[in-house]
Amino acid sequence: MTPAKRKLIGMLALLVFLIVYVLAAMAVAITMQVNSSRFAELSYYIVAGTLWVPVACWVISWMHRDS
User: pTM for this structure?
Assistant: First the structure.
């Protein structure tokens, strides 16, 4: 696979993943009613805001592989 195709596929996969992830994180926040306390809300959004990073790192590293 050419590097250009790999980067295009990776970019599209990352975009789709982030859209789905954001919508799922919002749905979980609404379902769990995390706004019941400030600490729960802050904790949830810190965790939810950083959980997407490992997946993004994996996709970006896949995009830049040599093979």
Answer: 0.82
Q: How many domains are there within the chain?
A: 1
Cα angle: 38, vertex 41, 46; to 5 degrees: 125
Specify whether the CB–CB gap between 59 and 10 falls below 8 A.
Answer: yes
With a CB cutoff of 8 Å and minimum separation 6, the contacts of 18 are: 52, 56
Taking only Cα atoms into account, the Rg of the chain, rounded to an integer number of angstroms, comes to 16
Domain interval for residue 42: 3-63
Whether the CB-CB separation of 4 and 27 falls below 8 Å is answered with no
The token duo for 7 is 């980067």
pLDDT tens, 34-53? 778 888 889 999 999 999 99
Say if residues 46 and 29 touch (Cβ distance below 8 Å). Answer: no
